[in-house]
Amino acid sequence: MQGGSPLTLECSAGSTTFVEGFLSIASPLTKLTQKTVKFQWSEACEKSFQELKKKLITAPVLTLPEGTQGFVVYCDASRVGLGCVLMQNGKVIAYASRQLQVHENNYPTHDLELAVIVFALKICRHYLYGVHVDIFTDHKSLQYVLTQKELNFRQRR
After folding, report:
1. How far is residue 49's CA from residue 86's CA, in Å, rounded to a whole number?
2. pLDDT in tens, 81-114
3. Which of 3, 7, 10 has its CA nearest to residue 41?
4. What gap in Å lies between CA 119 and CA 32, rounded to an integer?
5. Which residues, 6 or more positions from 97, have their beta carbon under 8 angstroms from its beta carbon?
6. Which range (1-15, 46-60, 71-85) has the least confidence?
7. Which of 66, 70, 101, 150 lies 20 to 30 angstroms, CA to CA, from 40?
């Protein structure tokens, strides 16, 4: 076994907001940390480790937010995870992503897309309080979620 390990993954976890695509890059490494998986360092793990190391040591092109100007949040969900990008004036402020939890694997697409919006708002809340925010998603039906008469329990949460 070379290099990487759960320790490397834990150390880099705090940088998820600054590494674009962290979820997809670290996926082979996070699978190694599961209790039911035998630890075997593969070619995919080594590639993931090297890519993550490269991303962490190169300077990301992020900017600081400018006052109370509005923000734009781009959200997307997949069967692998949730991800969002916080932007202001066309410049990236932060990235955020996470893998789906076990129970979320059974969610329909509509609920996953709603979950990523909730995730984005929680992660970026300290930037978004008191300012105008535009949220973009590729799931058109979410436009009507606040005007629906009936929401299931998961959507109400």
Report:
1. 26
2. 888 999 998 888 988 888 888 888 888 887 888 8
3. 3
4. 25
5. 16, 21, 22, 23, 24, 81, 82, 83, 84
6. 1-15
7. 101
